[in-house]
Each structure stands twice: as C-alpha cells, then as structure tokens.
C-alpha cells in the first residue's frame, strides 16, 4: 500500500527524520487560517510520482498567491488521479538535493540502501544516464544497517563534518523505519541540504508498505490506491489494471489476459493497461471496457483478445463495431458464435484474427508505427 506524502512524513517524523511541518487542506479558503510563515509550498497529495513536473507542486509568496495556486492544483488531474488534498509546508531554502532510499532487493533477498548526490530527479534517469553517481549497499539481515555503513555512504556522496553525521543518522533512521514498518520502499527524494548551513531536510517522502504486513501495523491509513480509471472499472464490475506502456489490452478470463500480456511483451511491446471482461460479458460490458482502456493517456494501440466460451463472439463484435476506437485496433476473435461475430465485424470492415500470436505482433507494430 502506498502512503501519501503527508502520511509518510508523519511516520518519518516519529523516527526523527527532519521534515517540514505542514497542514493538509482540501479547499483554497483554508489557506486563510493557516499559521505557516511564507513563502509556502503547495503539494498535491496523490499516489503518483513526478508531481512537480506535472504542475502539482507550487511555491507561493503570500496568502493571495497561495489561494490562487491552491485553486489551480485542487481538482487537477495528475496521471489519472484527481487532486483532493494539498499539503502546505513552509518553503525550505534548498542548496543541494540528494537521494536516499531503502528498498527490498528480491534477488539479493535483503534490503538495499540506494543513495546519490544527484537527487531531486527521477532515480531511474540517474541510473540510466549516470549510474556511477549511485551508491548501493546491501543490508546484511544478521547485523542490520550499522552507523558506520551510513557514514561510509555519506563519505562516498561527498559529505564531511556535521553533515556527514546527520546524513548517517537519517540513513539509520530510514533503515529502521523500513524494516519495522515492513516497507517495500522508503524513499527521500530529495533529501535537501539547506542553502545556508547545509542542514538536511526530507523534502519529499515516499513509503510503500507490504500489503501482506499491513495487519501488523495499527493506525495505518487505508488508502484506496485505485486510479480514476480503476475506480470506473470497478464501478462497472470490470477488473482493470493500469500499467505504463502503450498497448491497451482487453481479454476475457484472467489466464487469457495474462498470456496476452506475455505475448505483447514477447513481441517487444509494452501493455498500457489490461481489462478482463470476464465470462459472459455482454455488449454493454464490452463497450464500457473499450471506453475505459482507451481513456488512459498514452495508449497507441488497442488489442482485443477474446476466446468465446460463455462470452459470445457476436456480443463482443457488436460493441467493437459500434464504437471505432481513436487508436489502431487489432481483434482476435474465436469461439462461441464466432461466425456471427465475424459477420458483424466484416460489415464494419474490421478484420479479426483467429490466432493470438500474429494479432499480438500486429498490435505491437501498430503501437510503434
Ligand atoms: P515530486 O515531484 O512528486 O517528487 O515532489 P517533491 O516533493 O519531490 O517536489 C518536487 C521538487 O520541488 C523538489 O525536487 C524541489 O526541487 C521542489 N521543492 C519541493 N519543496 C520545496 C521547498 O520547500 N523549497 C524549495 N526550494 N523547493 C522545493
Ligand atoms: Mn520527490
């Protein structure tokens, strides 16, 4: 389960990790009764990263500006998530931005500390363009993360003196937090050194708790992690999962959908999302399914893979023929009432494959084109 920044920061603060005190608001008018010194930073509380780039983080010099900017951010759509809450904090004067995180390295079967002096930006970008700027240290589960580990990492990042010790202290606290909270990821990006005296401050906080362990932690928030589209799908009784590629996928049955994802990956494509219309899907279910998967930004092709059993090919075909998608589409249709389904599609000049492999290959090609 992902925590919002303000929720993660409450936990960080309990572990002695320095964060800016803040207030969560839901309406711009609430700015008036805040007692935070200006300038302030307004931060959209959504469970997706890159809020800054998306316009969800804004600086405001006075209450008038803060109210106007709060009105802009509240209600904004960030990567499919609507902003309902803002965290307002006193703006920090930032010098250098560092990166510090603990996460589970499944292959190594232990926690790994990842740190970098190139913080503030996406760590995946740093890993790609300047991997030498990333320091990694696996945590031996028998000894745990020791103070000298933190000091060693701090040295490698270029810290000295008091800042070195402060960094090591924060690293130890984050290691303890990660282990005790059963976190899959505990991340500070950026961990900022103040422009003046270099005091470190966790500007951002990301915390993902292992779903299997939430029962061990009382008082954890219950975050609904559904994106807007996932919520729309659930309301329509369809199971939909969001990914980050560009091929939208609709299938019927979990097994078929999983193998469809594998096929797309096999041919070099990346699924944008997938939706299982399930057994016995009606024309209306299918129409809703198409509507939902295509609403995701960045979709470049639609792959519909239907093996009619209880679901009838003609019901599916009627929905497809009635609603030509905004992106290139590939249909694979076979099984119950296949002939009727094909006739409906042919009348709408839509070709349907019988075999899934060539269809998947074509979907990947279309997404690339
Ligand atoms: P993210 O974009 O979702 O990762 O949100 P962050 O909380 O990391 O904020 C994005 C960026 O906004 C940071 O990397 C900072 O450069 C900037 N920022 C956030 N809070 C402050 C602040 O208090 N002072 C200053 N100067 N910049 C800030
Ligand atoms: Mn950040």
Describe the structure.
Helix 4 (147-156) packs across helix 5. It is built from 11 helices and 19 strands. With 369 residues, it is α+β, with helices and mostly antiparallel strands. 34% of the residues lie in helices and 27% in strands. The chain has helices at residues 5-14, 63-73, 123-129, 147-156, 161-180, 228-235, 254-266, 283-295, 313-322, 338-347, 356-368, and strands at 2-3, 22-25, 40-44, 57-60, 77-78, 81-82, 86-90, 94-105, 110-116, 134-138, 183-194, 200-202, 206-209, 239-242, 247-251, 271-276, 301-308, 329-335, 352-353. Strand 8 and strand 9 (110-116) form a beta hairpin. The model has no long low-confidence stretch (mean pLDDT 95). The strands form 4 sheets. Strands 1, 8, 9, 10, 11, 12 and 13 form a 7-stranded antiparallel sheet that branches. It has 3 domains: 21-90, Dna Ligase, domain 1 (2-Layer Sandwich), CATH 3.30.1490; 94-216, ATP-grasp fold, B domain (D-amino Acid Aminotransferase, Chain A, domain 1, 2-Layer Sandwich); 228-368, Rossmann fold (3-Layer(aba) Sandwich), CATH 3.40.50. It binds guanosine-5'-diphosphate and manganese (II) ion (MN). Guanosine-5'-diphosphate is lined by residues 41, 43, 49-52, 57, 91-92, 94, 97, 120, 189-190, 203-204.
The helix content is: 25-40%
Average pLDDT reading: 95
Shape, please? elongated
The hetero compounds bound to this protein are: guanosine-5'-diphosphate, manganese (II) ion
Class computed from helices, strands and strand pairing: alpha+beta
CATH topology assignment of the largest domain: Rossmann fold
CATH superfamily of the largest domain: Succinyl-CoA synthetase domains
CATH-defined architecture of the largest domain = 3-Layer(aba) Sandwich
The rounded Rg comes to 24 Å
What portion of the residues fall into strands of 2 or more residues? 25-35%
The largest pleated sheet is described as:
7 strands, antiparallel
User: What is the total number of structural domains?
Assistant: 3
